Design the sequence.
């Protein structure tokens, strides 16, 4: 293998180790790279002519992305001694950077994560660049772990326990300015001044000998009073428990370990860290979160098509329909500085839509409101129009009008002849098959679905739907566009409900069945949220809108009449105009902030009266039955989606549900969760419900898996 680390000398007495893993976009600390680092240190510490060592990256925008997760995964079933030993080995190597006979300085001019940050922490000093790409963090908790190469011991000694707890338990990255403010780095300077700043620092340290004093200080216990320690423990623990709801053990484990190790010297603290790591490594949540990491990693590299197709640039976007979805999509594009041409059949909706886009795009989290500066910047990018010719000028024309195939087809018939030869026409339809929408198009090859999820601002997933005649070029361009606006695209094949809504309808339909079988609304919601869903299915109905849900359901009732039928409840709700949050009335009553996202619903006695006549006689389902009845139909639908080849890979199903519906990441995905049970167990769980009809009948795929012991994930 070509070497990953090169040694140079920016000055005769200053060495530089530059990490640049050949053939990879990022530097990672694999065993081979660590061995190389070890060999370099062996040679360098023997020299008596060095004043300093600089560690830096040769890759633009990245310092070191962390340890090699694939290497770890191979040992997930190993005994705890393996984990403890792996932690010690890695830590002892990096720790050598704090014992060298010269000053060691990490230069961070890009993303520094996990093991990369631990390497920087073991250096005597760190300098970051002010580039927005330079971010430093210890995100191990997002994998169900905590830093295991001494990070939990070294960081609090450098920046104080409170800052360290926040960084390690939160897992978020910070930029150079914030890192300098907390003393994590000595300075944040422009990229081009990094090397000189490091050399100046090395010279200064030789005069002051401060680094020697710090070596001594950081090898002992943390200087913190009993009161401070107690107070930090109480507040941080309450916060972590509230954030994780007991589902993600790593942040709390990290906190408790750091509090207990605060009074120990660094060796004992590192020992404790390694032992604690063995409890987390290979745990069910760790395995699930590592699966999510791999799902995301695979998706980033997936162009959506098999061949080598170059996506066309999308420099402008037209959005037809200035409603809930159209404005959300336009705001995301405008934020990425893509100009948007907007239309709506209703002029009032168009005016409202323009205002909504600017408000949404210029929203500033820090002040919890619109930012005037940003509004001035984005407003010129939004162009309302009533002219088809204007709309047809964009590289991508996306329709988000009413969910009615005839109305959508009429719009396409008007627009298609006006489009430029390379432009793409797309629909944000939730359920209508792309083949049906494309039936009368002259150029169905440049038509596809680009299906965003509600609320657009929050949900990362976008399904790119390939119709039977959609070209690879169109799919590749749509996938690249979605990535360019910061969302997560999954390319799926055409079919009723595509991928996510096909599973969602199975789940939401069952929530209504449970209601009719006498289950209390709060118990149905609780069954879903206890499983880990962000909201219950009835609240979700109100968020989506009862009319939209009904139309979407209609497509599914038509396609799969054996397992899905229109609920009398939805029909009643439509009649009574209980359309959900947007009108302040649905399954719940929304007294305040009606129509606003996140509005809190209250039980409504009028709704109880509406349900009552429809309730079937018999014993209401138990809590366990409710959980099974909600999630097993969803899983069966996933197997049908795989059988019908709607997706190319089971990983798309799991990623789609996590990013589109908020399926709990700590379960690793729906199919990943099913694998933890095993197909035979799933069949056993289905048995009591088979009498309820086709929606609970095991599919050929599941039966085959139970017979052969095969899993979704090989
Ligand atoms: P909406 O009712 O909020 O907005 C639709 C807008 O389209 C309205 O302003 C309406 O005046 C306008 N319109 C209707 N016919 C038109 C025409 N011929 N030309 C121009 N404008 C026209 O609806 P929405 O929730 O934004 O849904 C829009 C599309 O997005 C639908 O296809 C829906 O299935 C899909 N979708 C909705 C959701 C959701 O949760 N609401 C999620 C994903 C996809």
Sequence:
């Amino acid at each position: 293998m070509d070497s990953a680390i090169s040694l140079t000398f920016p000055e005769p007495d200053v060495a530089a180790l530059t990490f640049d893993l050949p053939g990879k976009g990022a530097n990672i600390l694999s065993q081979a790279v660590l061995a190389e680092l070890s060999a370099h240190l062996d040679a360098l510490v023997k020299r008596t002519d060095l004043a300093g060592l600089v560690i830096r990256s040769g890759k633009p925008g990245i310092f070191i992305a962390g340890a090699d997760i694939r290497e770890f995964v191979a040992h997930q079933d190993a005994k705890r001694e393996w984990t403890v030993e792996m932690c010690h080995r890695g830590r002892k190597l990096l720790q050598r950077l704090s014992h060298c006979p010269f000053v060691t300085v990490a230069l961070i001019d890009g993303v520094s994560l996990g093991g990369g940050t631990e390497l920087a922490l073991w250096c005597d000093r760190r300098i970051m660049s002010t580039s927005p790409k330079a971010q430093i963090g210890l995100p191990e908790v997002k994998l169900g772990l905590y830093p295991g190469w001494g990070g939990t011991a070294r960081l609090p000694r450098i920046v104080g326990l409170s800052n360290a707890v926040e960084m390690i338990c939160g897992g978020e990255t910070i930029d150079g300015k914030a890192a300098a403010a907390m003393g994590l780095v000595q300075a944040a300077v422009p990229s081009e001044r990094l090397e000189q700043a490091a050399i100046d620092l090395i010279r200064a340290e030789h005069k002051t000998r401060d680094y020697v004093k710090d070596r001594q200080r950081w090898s002992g216990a943390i200087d913190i009073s009993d009161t401070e320690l107690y107070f930090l423990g109480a507040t941080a623990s309450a916060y972590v428990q509230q954030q994780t709801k007991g589902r993600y053990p790593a942040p709390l484990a990290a906190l408790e370990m750091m509090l207990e190790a605060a009074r120990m010297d660094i060796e004992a603290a590192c020992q404790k860290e390694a032992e604690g790591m063995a409890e987390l490594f290979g745990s069910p949540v760790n395995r699930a979160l590592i699966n999510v990491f791999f799902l995301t990693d695979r998706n980033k590299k997936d162009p959506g098509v098999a061949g080598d197709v170059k996506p066309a640039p999308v420099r402008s976007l037209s959005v037809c329909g200035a409603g809930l979805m159209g404005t959300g999509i336009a705001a995301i594009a405008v934020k990425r500085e893509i100009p948007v041409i907007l239309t709506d059949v209703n002029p009032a909706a168009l005016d409202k839509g323009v205002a909504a886009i600017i408000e949404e795009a210029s929203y500033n989290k820090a002040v919890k409101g619109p930012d005037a500066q940003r509004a001035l910047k984005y407003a010129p990018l939004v162009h309302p129009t009533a002219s088809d010719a204007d709309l047809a000028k964009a590289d991508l024309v996306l329709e988000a009008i009413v969910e009615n195939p005839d109305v959508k087809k009429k719009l396409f018939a008007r627009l298609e002849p006006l489009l430029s030869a390379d432009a793409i026409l797309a629909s944000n339809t939730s359920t209508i098959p792309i083949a049906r929408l494309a039936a009368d198009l002259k150029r169905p090859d440049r038509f596809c679905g680009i299906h965003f999820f509600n609320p657009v601002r929050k949900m990362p997933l976008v399904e790119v739907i390939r119709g039977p005649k959609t070209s690879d070029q169109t799919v590749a361009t749509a996938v690249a566009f979605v990535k360019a606006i910061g969302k997560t695209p999954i390319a799926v094949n055409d079919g009723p409900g595509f991928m996510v809504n096909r599973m969602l309808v199975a789940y939401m339909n069952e929530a209504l069945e449970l209601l009719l079988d006498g289950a209390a609304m709060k118990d149905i919601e609780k069954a879903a949220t206890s499983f880990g869903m962000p909201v219950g299915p009835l609240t979700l109905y109100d968020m989506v809108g009862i009319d939209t849900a009904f139309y979407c359901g209609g497509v599914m009732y038509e396609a799969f009449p054996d397992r899905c039928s229109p609920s009398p409840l939805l029909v009643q709700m439509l009649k009574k105009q209980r359309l959900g949050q947007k009108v302040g009335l649905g399954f719940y009553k929304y007294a305040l902030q009606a129509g606003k996202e996140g509005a809190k619903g209250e039980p409504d006695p009028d709704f109880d009266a509406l349900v009552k006549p429809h309730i079937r006689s018999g014993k209401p389902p138990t809590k366990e039955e409710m959980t099974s009845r909600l999630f097993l139909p969803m899983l069966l639908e996933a197997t049908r989606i795989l059988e019908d080849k709607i997706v190319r890979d089971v990983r798309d199903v799991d990623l789609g549900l996590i990013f589109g519906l908020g399926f709990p990441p700590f379960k690793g995905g729906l199919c990943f969760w099913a694998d933890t049970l095993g197909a035979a167990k799933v069949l056993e769980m289905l048995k009591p419900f088979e009498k309820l009809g086709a929606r609970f009948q095991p599919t050929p795929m599941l039966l085959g898996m139970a017979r052969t012991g095969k899993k979704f994930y090989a």
